[in-house]
Amino acid sequence: MDKMPKWADVILTPLISLLLAMAISALVILAIGESPWLALKTMVDGALGSSYGWGFTLYYTTNFIFTGLAVAVAYHASLFNIGGEGQAAMGGLGVALVLLYLPLPHWILALPVAMAGAAMFGAAWALIPAWLQARRGSHIVITTIMFNFIAAALLNYVLVNLLRPVGSMDPASGRFPEATHLPKLSDIALGMGLEWGKNTPVNVTFIVAIIACLLVWLLIWRTRLGYEIRAFGRSEPGALYAGISPVRITVLAMLISGGLAGLMAINNVMGESERLVLNAVEGAGFIGIAVALMGRNHPLGVLLAALLFGFLYQGGGELALWTSIPRELIIVIQALVILFTGALDNMVRMPLERLFLSRRKRGAA
Amino acid sequence: MDFATAIQILDSAVRLMTPLLLACLAGLYSERSGVFDIGLEGKMLMAAFTAASVAYATGSASLGLVAGIGGSLALSLIHGAASITFMGNQLISGVAINFLASGLTVLLGQKIFGLGGRTPALSGDGRFGEITLPFADSLREVPVIGPIYAELISGHTILVYVAFAMVPLTWWVLARTRFGLRLRAVGENPASVDTAGVSVTRLRFAAIAICGVLCGIAGAYLATGLSAGFVKEMTAGRGFIALAALIFAKWRPWSALGATFLFGLLEAIANRYPNLDLGIVTIPSMFMNALPYILTVIILAGFVGRAIPPRAGGEPYVKER
Q1: Residues of A numbered 336-365 whose beta carbons fall under 8 angstroms of chain B's beta carbons: which are they?
Q2: Which in A170, A227, B22, B306 has the greatest CB count within 10 A?
Q3: Does any CB of chain A come closer than 8 Å to the CB of residue B97?
Q4: What tens digit of pLDDT does each residue of A62-84 get?
C-alpha cells in the first residue's frame, strides 16, 4: 500500500525540499548582509524580465537538460553517473574534431554529424566505467569521478599540444568553419519578423533538447529496453531472474547517459563558442545531478528543473553584475538543492508520510 | 639527476603528500565504518578557509587549526545527519557538501575580506613554522645521511609530523582497540554490532567526527602550512586524489602511507619537470597529473590486486523492528 498519494510524492516533497533550500539560501544572503528580496528581484529581472534575459536562461537550460537527462537515464538503472562533466567535455572534443576535419557545407548537414560525434565521444567516455562496473564490480561513482579528472587532463593536453592553431597563445582550438554556424533562436525570430533575444546564445539546440526529453520519455516508459533498465534499477536479482543481462543493461544505460551528456557540446561548443576552449563545460555536468534529483528523473521534471537552474545561473550572473553578491551564491543554492532533494529527502518525506497516514486512518474510522 | 635534486624532490613530495595522507586517513575511518565519503574535498576546502580566516584575525596558526577542524566538523555533521540519521544517499550528500564548501568559502571570503574569495596573506605566527629537529644543522655535513636528515626529515611544520604519526596510531586504533574492532565490524556487518548491543548510529557518528577532525587538519595545513592563506578552490582535487589513494591502499593505514607518498611524489615530479624527458618519449605534465586517477581506475578494475570496499559501505543501517 502506498503511504502517500502520488501527487504528494511527485510534486509536494520536491517542492517542500526546494522551499527549504531557498529559505536557507535566503538566510545565507542575509548573513552576508544583503537583502534576499532584492536578490530575488534582481535575479528575476535579469533572467526573465527581458527577451535578452530569456535568451541566456534558455541557453543554460539547454545545457542542463542534456546533463540532467544523462543523470536521470543512468539513475533509472540505479547507476549514479557523476561523470557528466567529463562526458560533456569529451563530447566537445568530438564536436570539434568533426567540425574541424570534415568538410560540411551547411549546418543542416553539420548538426546531425556533430551530434553523432558528440554522442559517440561522450558515450565512449562512459563505456569504460560502465564496463568496469558490470564486469569487474568497480564502483561506478568512483570511476566516473576519476574519468572526469582524466578527461580534464586529456583535453588540456589536446588543446595545448594538438588542436591549438600555430601562433595562438590561448589553449583553444581554431574557429569552426562559418558554414557550420548554428542559427540562433533570435535569427529565427527575426526571420518571422520578431525582434527577440538579440545577441543571446540560445540556438536550435534548444529544440533538439526538447526532442531529447521526449525521446528519453519514450525510451524509459514505452520501449522494451526502457522497461529492462527500470526493472534492473529496481531489483538486480529480479531482473536477472527475468532473463535481463545486468552487463548489457549497465553498459547500454551508461552509453545512453554518456551520449546525452556528450550532446550538450552541440549547444556550448558548436552553438555558442564555435571553437573548443578549455573548461567549456563549466560545471554543467554537476548541475545535471541537481537537475535530475529535483526533476525526480522524469524528462518533464528534468525540463522544469533545468529551466529553474537556467534561471538561477543567468540570475546569478546578473547578481554578480548589479549587487555585491558573488556568482558563487548559485553554487551554494545548487548544493542546498542537491542536499535537500537528494540526501535529506527522508527528512521531508517521513513527516509527510506520517501526516498522510494519520489522515487516512481518521478517514477510515 | 643528482643526489641533491633527488632530496629536493623527495622533500617536496613529503610536503605535498601530507594533506593527501590526512584526508586519506580521514576517509579511511569513515569508510571502514560503512559511510562513503566523497565530500573529503569540500571538508578540506572549508577547513582551509576557516583556518586561514581565523589565523589572519588572531595571528595564531594554532587557533586557525582549531577553526579549521571546526569548519570541517560542521560539514561532517551535515553528512552524518543526511546519511546516518535520515538514511539518505551518502554519495549525493558528499556531492552536496563539496558544492556547499566551494560556494560558501568564496561567498563568506568575499564578504569578510573583499578580495574575490582570497584571504589576506598570512605571515609570522599566522603560519605554522618549520621545525628544525635536534642536531639537524650539525649533522648536515655528514655525507648521505646528513642531507637526508637535515633536508628531508627535519624542517617541516608540526602538522607534517602529526600526519605521519597518524599512520601507526590509526593502525593501532583499528587493529588493537575495542573501538577499532567495532568500527570495522560496523562497516562490514552493522546488524551483528547492533545485536551485540552497540549503537550503530553512535559508532558511525564517531567515525565521521574523526574524519572531520582529520580533514580539518589537512585543510589547515594547506592554508597555513603549505601556503600562506586561502585561495579559491585551493584544494584543487586533492580530496579526490585522497579518495583514490584510499582505494589504492585498499582501506589500510600503512598502505595509505605508501599510496599517498606515491601520489605526492608524482605531483612533486610534475611540478619540477613540466615536460619529463625520458629520452625516448617526453611525458607531458598533464599525464603526470592524471596518473593518480589512471592508476586508481586500474586498481579498481582489479587487474593488479583487487580492491574490495567494506561490505556495508554506502548502505544506511535500518534497524529491524
Answers
A1: 336, 338-339, 342-347, 350
A2: B22
A3: yes
A4: 999 999 999 999 999 999 999 99
Does A51 map to a domain?
no
Q: Is A89 on the interface with B (CB under 8 A)?
A: no
Helices (H) and strands (E) in chain B, counts: 13, 4
Residues A80, B91: C-beta atoms closer than 8 Å: yes
Chain A residues lying within 8 Å of B247, measured CB to CB: 142
CA-to-CA separations, A352 to A121, A348, A357, B242, B265, in angstroms, rounded: 43, 6, 8, 39, 52
Query: Nearest-CA neighbor of A228 among A212, A213, A249, A211?
Result: A249
The domain containing residue A154 runs over which residues? 56-306
pLDDT tens digits, A169-203 = 888 888 898 888 888 898 888 888 888 888 889 99
* Domains: count for chain A: 1
Phi, psi dihedral angles at B156 (to 5 degrees): -110, 170
- Is position A135 within any domain? yes
Say yes or no: B297 contacts chain A, CB-CB below 8 A: yes
Which amino acid does the sequence have at B180? Answer: G
- Pick from B293, B295, B303, B315 the residue to mutate for testing the A interface (most A CBs within 10 Å): B293
DSSP assignment letter at A227: H
Q: Does A24 touch chain B (CB under 8 A)?
A: no
CATH number of residue A229's parent domain: 1.10.3470
Are the C-beta atoms of residues A319 and A39 closer than 8 Å to each other?
yes
Contact B293 A146 (CB under 8 A): yes
Going by C-alpha positions, the residue among A258, A168, A201 that lies closest to residue A59 is: A201
What's the pTM value of the predicted model, to 2 decimals?
0.90
List of residues 6+ apart from A74 with CB closer than 8 A: A80, A81, A253, A254, A257
Cell 558554414 belongs to which residue? A179
DSSP character at residue A277: B
Which of B86, B95, B296 is opposite residue A338, by nearest beta carbon?
Answer: B95
CA distance A89 to chain B (A): 16
Measured CA to CA in angstroms, residue A17 lies from A349, A351, B178 at distances of 9, 13, 40
**Residue A128, domain member (yes or no):** yes
Distance CA A7, CA B85 (A): 26
ipTM for the predicted complex comes to 0.89
Residue B116 phi, psi (nearest 5): 70, 30
What pLDDT sits at residue B305? 62
Closest Cα of chain B to A37: distance in Å? Answer: 18
- Subunit contact B93:A342, Cβ cutoff 8 A: yes
Class of CATH domain B3-301: mainly alpha
Would you call B302 and A136 a contact, using CB atoms and an 8 Å cutoff? yes
- The percent of residues above 90 in pLDDT, for chain B, comes to 50
Residue A110 lies in a domain: yes
d(CA A170, CA B278) in angstroms, rounded, equals 27
Measured CA to CA, the distance from residue A79 to residue A251 in angstroms comes to: 10
